[in-house]
Amino acid sequence: MNAEEIAALIGRAGDEDPEVRAEVASELPAALSGRADDPVPAVLVRLTSDDEARVREQAAFALGQLAEVDGPDIRAALWRRVGDEDPETHEEAVRGLAVRRDPGAVPLLAALLEEPTAYVQTFTAAAVLGDPGLLPALRKFDPADPGVGEALQACDPAARERRDAAAGALLDAVYDLLPSADAALVASRFEAHLTLLLVTAGGGGTTWNADALLVRAGGDPRRAAALVAEDL
Question: What SUPFAM superfamilies would the database entry show (predicted)?
Answer without folding.
Answer: ARM repeat (SSF48371)
